[in-house]
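User: Hi! Is it possible to get a structure for several chains at once, not just one? Here's what I have:
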Amino acid sequence: MSPVFAASTALGPVTQKYLVEARQMQALSFAVHIPLVCFGIAFPAMVLFVEWLFHRTGDEVYLTLARRWTRVMVALFAVGVITGTILSFEMGLLWPNFTATFGSVFGLGFAIEGFSFFLEAIFIGIYVYGWDRLSRRWHMLSGAPIVLAGFTGSLMVIAVNAWMNHPGGFELVAGKAVHINPWRALFGNWYLWHELVHMYVAGYVVTGFVVAAPYAYGYLKGRRGRYELTALAIPLTVAALAAPVQVLIGDWAARAVAEGQPTKLASLEGVGHTERGAPETLGGWYTNGEVKYGIEIPKLLSFLSYHNFNAQVQGLDAVPANDRPPVNIVRFAFQTMVGIGTLMALLGIVYLVLRIRRRSLPRWFYWAVVVAGPASVVALIAGWVTTEVGRQPWVVYQVMRTSQAVTGAGGIPIGYGVLALVYVAVAAGVVWILRRLARTPVRGQPTPV
Amino acid sequence: MHLSMIPLVFVLIGLALYVVLGGADFGAGWWQLTAGTGEHADRVRELAHDSMAPVWEANHVWLIFVLTVFWTAYPKAFGSIASTLSVALFIASIGIISRGALYALRSATTTTREERRIDPAFGLSSIVTPFALGAAVGGIASGRVPVGNAAGSLWTSWLNPTSAIIGALAVVTGIYMAAVFLSGDAGRTGNADLIESYRTRALVSGVVAGALAVGGLIVIHGDAPRLYHGLVQGDGLPALIVSALAGIGTIALVWLRRFEPARYVAGVAVAAIVAGWALAQKPQLLPGLTVSQAAAPHDTLVAVIVAVIAGAVILFPSLAALFRLTLGGQFDPGDAAAEARPATPRAVEPRNPRLVARLAIGALVIGFGLVNVASSTLAHVIGAGFLFAFVGLGFRVALSLGGEAEEPAATSK
Ligand code: HDD
Ligand code: HEM
Ligand code: HEM
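Assistant: Yes, the chains can be modeled jointly so their relative placement is included. Here is the combined structure:
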């Protein structure tokens, strides 16, 4: 047992041989869902913008683009829905004890999120089938709730995650959660805000680069008509602006982690022992309480985390060994995110500067955009690995261990295998759909590609 | 009514709507599976697919609603159910994901040959999913889910006579409702020959569903006597009667080709089954766990109730709009009114780009100060607002549309 209090669980103690598989199954499901979610966050706004351009100018190019993107949006939304449904099931299938013990504290967030999904699904139906059938104004208006729901949906789910990272809104008396105030637990939590903003901006970075990448590739292959250039410029401009902003938000996130979860910070940075004026170490491998083969920048970590070059940074040795996360995974994920994030921010700045000077973009730039598409998804997943694995061994930070949350049912490896196969098939299906959509003409519109 | 019952009523309403609306979606999959081959069969399948298209996502969110409200308001019961019934629920979730993916695939197909290849798999997952969910309900209704973390049997909890009957009933009522709904849709979309095809299907599947329900009572009598007595002698009886009458009424209405009212009466027949189950089992949620024992603490219940009511105020008008547009035939395929051109094209570039650029940089500087220099959460959140403003304003100046076509447009085909 840890020195900190651990809840006794609603369904009693449990032994589960396959905890690791359960965690991996959860991680797999998230890794599939979250990139799709980015499209739910940012793509509707882009589609609406293009539709607005069409209404303003009457230019067919915008109409074609908006309709084509609408079809992509619907296909990705459908896959977002089913992968999200899997996640809802997993709350019970994998972590029944977590839900049973704390559902009354955090569940409200998901219940409200359900409504936000509802609105999204309803208005996506109206928007998609309303092309040509609703008046222009009503059609644009029917898109607005989709954009809004992208925001409220992430707000709710992140509120739950922020609660898991920084639990509050209840008291533990003899191992039971009492005096529960779900509103305060979810929305009175300062830890929520950096996560929400960071994820929301990530949505724009990822959608921007992922949508831009194929058009950048097309550009390199000589597809440079007005349609293609427009389709490249819009997402790329969004991503170029959002990527540098994401670095600023990331700094906020790191300072919040330093304050709320010092152990997580210590594993992000590989700080073995509590020290003053801690250096920032890039690269390397953490073993025996220190980072080997890394590049040290003196005192930078103390400054970044606490705005003071001599601030004290808590080391991993402040907590017992079985309360520490797997340092190298967390650290590697964190550095991957920061590395990719920095490069993408630079890429964005290059783009903005060249645009403002009205220079043409060099060839390597287009190649860089092609790479930035998948790289942004890697940064996204790496960020979640940082957050979730960095919180281990806790599912609710310092309150409930992941090993207490897990199901007692057998057969997890079988479920994991089946789900993995299904996801491979779904991924193949999505690729097929997107390629098909890129080829088939939009009804009544000339073929653009 | 006691406070602890109210969220359960919401859950049951959501469940009833899922069984009716989601069930009809599943049923449509069956008709796609069994349409046979040939030109007429292709049209039967096409109608089933098209009628679902605008609404299927919304229909399936009911399930999410049921899950989330249930685990918030009755967490202990949820954990017990999900862990003991994990096999059935896992099968259902795989069915849901396959079905959704196949549905998206089908929407992107271009030839009937491709459609014919997808429809059987789609139909199969449309049967497996409601069966697994129904079987899980059967496990709860027959008292096979004890309180605890996977405390019941992973297999017999959902492989038993009651589960089999409720699973089958879930499948067949969906099939039946789909046929009723599609008869109406066929009329609306001017597929007169399909009206007859679906009317026959509705009549046959209606009789099968009715027979199954009666047979089911006999099975339940032997397997789950508590449930049986609750249904035929206890509080469930009125619901049972309503369901039977509405079921017969629907068949009569379909016979008389009154498809629109039949739609609603069929819904009542099925929803009454859900109500009957709840009333028969009351006040036990699981063996030895009553609803009020399972319920979350007071403040959480109030919060859920407030959230659901507030959500419903937004939700129902939106849903009504969707269904009005769909059932009003606005979304049916066919030739659409051409989009009118705007009278005078207007400029999309900002009128004063320099000013916007200055504002954007100003927002960036303030945002940086509040997010990265200041150190209170409030400052950070306000700063994030400024950073968003930077992105928005910056987008307006930095985006240059089509102005950079260095290459002649001829390179695009
Ligand atoms: C496109 C994606 C992306 C990019 C470019 C970055 N991040 Fe990130 N990061 C995320 C996407 C993300 C995320 C996936 O959205 C996370 C997971 C949880 C969260 O709130 O955001 C995250 C989490 C996360 C956390 C942990 C927060 C917590 O546990 O509460 C920190 C400290 C950072 N990030 C810091 C940074 C820094 C300093 C970056 C600068 C380069 C950066 N991130 C770029
Ligand atoms: C509400 C929002 C949540 C979000 C956004 C979230 C996010 C994530 C992500 C993205 C991962 C995968 C990281 C990877 O790819 O390796 C992950 C892993 C994980 N999550 Fe969460 N999670 C949430 C809730 C939960 C819940 C409810 C549980 C369960 C109790 C949970 C437990 C875990 C576990 C055990 C892992 C695997 C960690 C490991 O592999 O060591 N998370 N989470
Ligand atoms: C435990 C974690 C999660 C659960 C249980 C979950 C559940 C779901 C469900 C059920 C859906 C389908 C909604 C529908 O039917 O319309 C969905 C979609 C969505 N989820 Fe998640 N989700 C989780 C994690 C996340 C995360 C980390 C985010 C990111 C902020 C997120 C944001 C969204 C959004 C915006 C959608 C809309 C669908 C789309 O646009 O693709 N969810 N989620």
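Residues A 165, 195, 198-199, 202, 205-206, 246-247, 250-251, 253-254, 257, 337-338, 340-342, 344, 376, 379-380, 383-384, 386-387, 390 surround HDD (ligand 1) (CB under 6 Å). The longest strand of chain B covers residues 284-286.

User: Great, thank you!
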